[in-house]
TrEMBL record, chain A:
Binding partners and assembly: Component of the nuclear pore complex (NPC)-associated TREX-2 complex (transcription and export complex 2). Component of the SAGA transcription coactivator-HAT complex. Within the SAGA complex, participates to a subcomplex of SAGA called the DUB module (deubiquitination module).
Chief localization: nucleus
Compartment(s) of residence: Nucleus, Nucleoplasm
General function of this protein: Involved in mRNA export coupled transcription activation by association with both the TREX-2 and the SAGA complexes. The transcription regulatory histone acetylation (HAT) complex SAGA is a multiprotein complex that activates transcription by remodeling chromatin and mediating histone acetylation and deubiquitination. Within the SAGA complex, participates to a subcomplex that specifically deubiquitinates histones. The SAGA complex is recruited to specific gene promoters by activators, where it is required for transcription.
Molecular function terms from GO: transcription coactivator activity
Family of this protein: Belongs to the ENY2 family.
Entry GO terms, CC: DUBm complex; nuclear pore; nucleoplasm; SAGA complex; transcription export complex 2
Protein name as it appears in the record: Transcription and mRNA export factor ENY2
Keywords attached to this entry: Activator, Chromatin regulator, mRNA transport, Nucleus, Protein transport, Transcription, Transcription regulation, Translocation, Transport
PANTHER family with a match to the protein in the record: ENHANCER OF YELLOW 2 TRANSCRIPTION FACTOR (PTHR12514)
Pfam families: EnY2 (PF10163)
GO terms classed as biological process: chromatin organization; mRNA export from nucleus; protein transport; transcription elongation by RNA polymerase II
Keyword Transmembrane helix appears in the UniProt entry: no
TrEMBL record, chain B:
Entry similarity comment: Belongs to the peptidase C19 family. UBP8 subfamily.
Protein name per UniProt: ubiquitinyl hydrolase 1
InterPro entries for this protein: Papain-like_cys_pep_sf (IPR038765), Peptidase_C19_UCH (IPR001394), Ub_carboxyl-term_hydrolase (IPR050185), USP (IPR028889), USP_CS (IPR018200), Znf_RING/FYVE/PHD (IPR013083), Znf_UBP (IPR001607)
GO MF annotation terms: cysteine-type deubiquitinase activity; zinc ion binding
Keywords from the named record: Hydrolase, Metal-binding, Nucleus, Protease, Thiol protease, Transcription, Transcription regulation, Ubl conjugation pathway, Zinc, Zinc-finger
Pfam family, one: zf-UBP
Catalysed reactions listed for this entry: Thiol-dependent hydrolysis of ester, thioester, amide, peptide and isopeptide bonds formed by the C-terminal Gly of ubiquitin (a 76-residue protein attached to proteins as an intracellular targeting signal)
PROSITE patterns for the chain: USP_1, USP_3, ZF_UBP
Species: Patella caerulea (Rayed Mediterranean limpet)
Length: 103, 450
C-alpha cells in the first residue's frame, strides 16, 4: 500500500517536472499550436463548432453556460480526435523528453 | 452574451481599474520573455492541491490560484467572497455570482494587444492560428446577404453538369477534374487570385477559372454552359480551336500553360525558368523528372532533371528490358498477365515500365561526357520530386507508321498509390527514402484520346 502511495507521489512529481520543462522552453506553446493546426486541418474544429451551435440553439442563448457546453462537448471532442494526430503529438513529446538531459 | 460584462465586473473595474487583469494576463498568459516563462512554469500550480492542473484560475482580488475541476477556486470564491477569477489558459473572466464567464470589451482589448506583441516570436510561432474576425466591409456584405447555406455530408454543392458545345467533352472532363481538385478549389474560393491584367479581366483565363468556381459552388444544380471559357481557350491556344474532336491531355497541358502565363501577367512568353515560378499552377502540378543516362563503357552517369506537369505512360506491347539486340524482340519482362505478354493492365505496371532502364540501341549512340567516345548507353527515368497533384497520362493513341489506332486496354488504378519504388532515391539505393503515398488519386480521368 505504501508502495502505491509512493508511486502516486512520484508520478505527480514527474508530471509537475515535465510540465515545468514544457512551459519553460516554450515547447508547450508550440505543441498547442501544432495540435491546433492539425485539428483545424482535419475538420475537427468545424465539427465541434457545429455541435456547439446545436447545443446553444437547444438550450437557448440566454440560459446556456460555458460549463454546460464543456460538459456536453468534452466526450465528443475527445472521441473525434484522429489517431494520426494523437500519434504525431505523442511522438513530438517523446522526442522533446529524450532531448532533456536532466529528467 | 454581451461585451459589457456583468454588474459585479463593472463594480470591480470601478474600484480597482483594469490593472489587476493586465498584470495577471501579462505574467501568466502571454509570457513576453523566457524569464516570465520560468516564473510561470514554477508558479502555475493550484495553491490548494499543489498540482499543475488544467483550467487553473487566478483570483482577481488576491494572490490565489485554484483549479476548476476539483472546485478549489469555487471554494476560495465562496469563503473569501472574491467572486471574480481569470482562466489562465484563455484569459477569460468568470463571475461566480453570475455563475458564468463574462465578456468585457475593455478587457478583451487588453488581451488582444498582448497577442499582437512580438512575444510569440520567442517561441518560434510565426503565424499562430486565430479565428476569423470579419472586417467592416465583410460585415456589410454579410448583413446585405442574409441567406446562409450549410454544407453537410449530404450536400451536393460543387456538383454541376457541363453542356457540350460541340465535341467539347475533352474540355468538359478536364474542367470537372480541375474544379474538384481540393487545393485548387481552396485557392480560388479563398479569392487568392489577383488579376495581372487590370482592366482586362475578361481576357484573363485565371479570372475566368475563378468565375467558373463561383458557378460550380453557387449551389445551382442546372448544367453550366462554359462558352466564355471555351472562347478564351480558343483565343489563347489556337491549335485547339474549332469543333473537331480534340485530345483531353493536350487541353490539360494547354490550359495549365495559359493559366501559368496569366498568373504571371506576361503576354505570350512562358516563364523561361520554371524553377523560379511560384504561381499556384506550378506549386500544385510541377514535379521533377530525373533522366539518367549511363555510358556502357565507363559507367558515367549523366543526370538531368526536368520540370514536368504530367507523367506520360506508354500502353500496349513494349520492348523487353536489357535486350542485346538493337531491334526490339518479344520476350518476358515480368508483368503479371503472362510471361510472354507484356502489355500493362494496371497503373503500377505502367509506372514500372516507365522507370525501367531502357537500353538505347546502337543506332542511338551518345557521346559520353567522361570518356569522350560514342558508346551505347542505358537511360532510366525516375521521379525526383513528386507534384502535389499528379496527372498520369495514358498514351492510348498509337502513332504507328501513319495509321491511328486507339489502345482500349482496361487499365486499373489503386485507391492508394505508393510512389516509393519509382523515386530517384530508390534508384540510388538510399536508406533514407521518404514515403510519398498519394491517396485518393486526385485526377483520375478515363477519357478518349483521339
Amino acid at each position: 500500500m505504501a508502495d502505491l502511495q509512493e508511486r502516486k507521489i512520484k508520478d505527480a512529481q514527474m508530471r509537475a517536472t515535465i510540465n515545468q520543462k514544457l512551459v519553460e522552453t516554450g515547447e508547450r506553446e508550440r505543441l498547442k499550436e501544432l495540435l491546433r493546426t492539425r485539428l483545424v486541418e482535419c475538420g475537427w474544429r468545424d465539427q465541434l463548432k457545429a455541435h456547439c451551435k446545436d447545443i446553444v440553439q437547444q438550450k437557448g442563448l440566454e440560459h446556456v453556460t460555458v460549463d454546460d457546453l464543456v460538459a456536453e462537448i468534452t466526450p465528443k471532442g475527445r472521441a473525434l480526435v484522429p489517431d494520426n494526430v494523437k500519434k504525431e503529438l505523442l511522438q513530438r513529446i517523446r522526442t522533446f523528453l529524450s532531448q532533456q538531459s536532466n529528467i | 452574451m454581451s461585451v459589457h460584462g456583468c454588474q459585479h465586473l463593472s463594480a470591480f473595474k470601478a474600484a480597482k481599474g483594469t490593472d489587476p487583469f493586465r498584470i495577471i494576463y501579462s505574467y501568466f498568459i502571454a509570457c513576453p520573455s523566457a524569464d516570465a516563462r520560468r516564473i510561470k512554469a514554477k508558479s502555475c500550480v493550484c495553491h490548494t492541491c499543489r498540482q499543475p492542473t488544467l483550467r487553473l484560475h487566478a483570483c482577481m482580488y488576491c494572490i490565489y490560484f485554484g483549479c476548476y475541476g476539483a472546485k478549489h477556486i469555487h471554494e476560495h470564491a465562496k469563503s473569501k467572497k472574491h467572486n471574480l477569477a481569470i482562466d489562465l489558459t484563455y484569459g477569460t473572466v468568470i463571475c461566480f455570482s453570475c455563475e458564468d464567464y463574462v465578456y468585457d470589451k475593455d478587457l478583451e482589448d487588453i488581451a488582444r494587444s498582448f497577442s499582437q506583441k512580438p512575444s510569440l516570436n520567442l517561441v518560434n510561432l510565426k503565424d499562430p492560428f486565430s479565428s476569423w474576425e470579419p472586417s467592416e466591409d465583410e460585415l456589410q456584405l454579410l448583413k446585405k446577404n442574409p441567406k446562409r447555406r450549410k454544407v453537410d455530408a449530404k450536400s451536393t454543392v460543387g456538383l454541376r453538369g457541363l453542356i457540350n458545345l460541340g465535341n467539347t467533352c475533352f474540355m468538359n472532363c478536364i474542367v470537372q477534374a480541375l474544379t474538384h481538385t481540393p487545393i485548387l478549389r481552396d485557392f480560388f474560393l479563398a479569392d487568392r487570385h489577383t488579376c495581372q491584367m487590370p482592366g482586362e479581366s475578361k481576357q484573363c483565363l485565371v479570372c475566368e477559372m475563378a468565375r467558373l468556381f463561383q458557378e460550380f459552388y453557387s449551389g445551382i444544380c442546372t448544367p453550366h454552359i462554359p462558352y466564355k471559357l471555351l472562347h478564351l481557350v480558343w483565343t489563347n491556344a489556337r491549335h485547339l480551336a474549332g469543333y473537331e474532336q480534340q485530345d483531353a491531355h493536350e487541353f490539360l497541358i494547354a490550359a495549365l500553360d495559359v493559366l501559368h502565363r496569366h498568373c504571371k501577367g506576361t503576354n505570350g512568353m512562358s516563364c523561361s525558368n520554371p524553377h523560379l515560378c511560384n504561381c499556384i499552377i506550378d506549386q500544385i502540378f510541377t514535379g521533377g523528372l530525373q533522366s539518367d543516362v549511363t555510358c556502357k563503357q565507363c559507367n558515367n552517369v549523366s543526370t538531368t532533371i526536368d520540370p514536368i506537369w504530367d507523367i506520360s505512360l506508354d500502353l500496349g506491347p513494349g520492348p523487353p528490358a536489357f535486350s542485346s539486340h538493337s531491334t526490339p524482340s518479344p520476350g518476358g519482362t515480368g508483368f503479371t498477365n503472362s510471361p510472354g505478354n507484356y502489355e500493362p493492365t494496371s497503373l503500377l505496371e505502367c509506372l514500372k515500365r516507365f522507370t525501367r532502364p531502357e537500353h538505347l540501341g546502337s543506332s542511338a549512340k551518345i557521346k559520353c561526357g567522361k570518356c569522350h567516345c560514342y558508346q551505347e548507353s542505358t537511360k532510366q527515368l525516375t521521379m525526383k520530386k513528386l507534384p502535389v497533384v499528379a496527372c498520369f497520362h495514358l498514351k492510348r493513341f498509337e502513332h504507328s507508321t501513319g495509321y491511328h489506332k486507339k489502345i482500349s486496354t482496361f487499365v486499373s488504378f489503386p485507391d492508394e498509390l505508393d510512389m516509393t519504388p519509382f523515386m530517384s532515391s530508390s534508384r540510388n539505393d538510399n536508406n533514407g527514402f521518404s514515403n510519398q503515398i498519394i491517396q485518393d488519386m486526385p485526377t483520375s480521368l478515363s477519357c478518349d484520346n483521339k
